[in-house]
Amino acid sequence: EPRSAWCCLAWTLVVVTMNSLVFFMNLLLMFVIFTIVLLPTIVVVYFGFQCHSQVLHSAARYCKSILDDNSSSALIILGFVIMSPLIVVAMAIYCSLARRLCLFMCFQPYSRAVYKGVKWGWYEEGGLCSCANGWNTQVKAWV
Fold first, then answer.
1. Dihedrals phi, psi of 32, to nearest 5 degrees
2. Where in the chain are the domains?
3. What three-state secondary structure class fits 27?
4. Three-state SS annotation for 64-115
5. Of 43, 105, 101, residue with least CA distance to 75
6. Which residues of 2-30 are buried (b: 16+ CB within 10 A; e: fewer)?
7. How far apart are CA 30 and CA 116, in angstroms?
């Protein structure tokens, strides 16, 4: 049966808050994984831009003795070339980790706030954001 207007509003705030927390947890996990995996690209492009004479032209010793404009340009190009495969690797790591941790099972539908007697996802499945019941680990995305 439907909830009253004030009760529906209160439960809506609970569901929205919970879904927002799950969303930001996913976003933080994605940020950490992408930062770690793309660190080589970040470092290479940073040093390329830092030592190029027409960009930042740092006065650091390694810029004067090791890197000239040609090698700085090569570092910038190399950094952008290796970025594409590393983005694919980072996305694969994030997706496999999110699937293994069942992070997307933590989102709750809006019907939890509108109707009385609708059980929460973790209550029905035996744990917080659990995907132990009904989850076949042998199923692949491409099948």
1. -65, -45
2. 26-102
3. helix
4. HHCCCHHHHHHHHHHHHHHHHHHHHHHHHHHHHHHHHHCHHHHCCCCHHHHE
5. 43
6. ebeeeebeebeeebeeeeeebeeebeeeb
7. 35
Helix H or strand E encompassing 22: helix 5-37
Consecutive 10-residue runs of the chain (143 residues): their mean pLDDT? Answer: 77 87 93 97 92 79 83 93 96 92 79 67 53 53 46
pLDDT of residue 41: 96
Torsion over CA of 34, 101, 13 and 134, rounded to 10 degrees? 140
41 C-beta neighbours (distance < 10 Å), count: 19
Whole-Å CA distances, 49 to 30, 37, 52, 68, 135: 26, 20, 5, 11, 48
Torsion, CA 11, CA 14, CA 19, CA 20, rounded to 10:
130
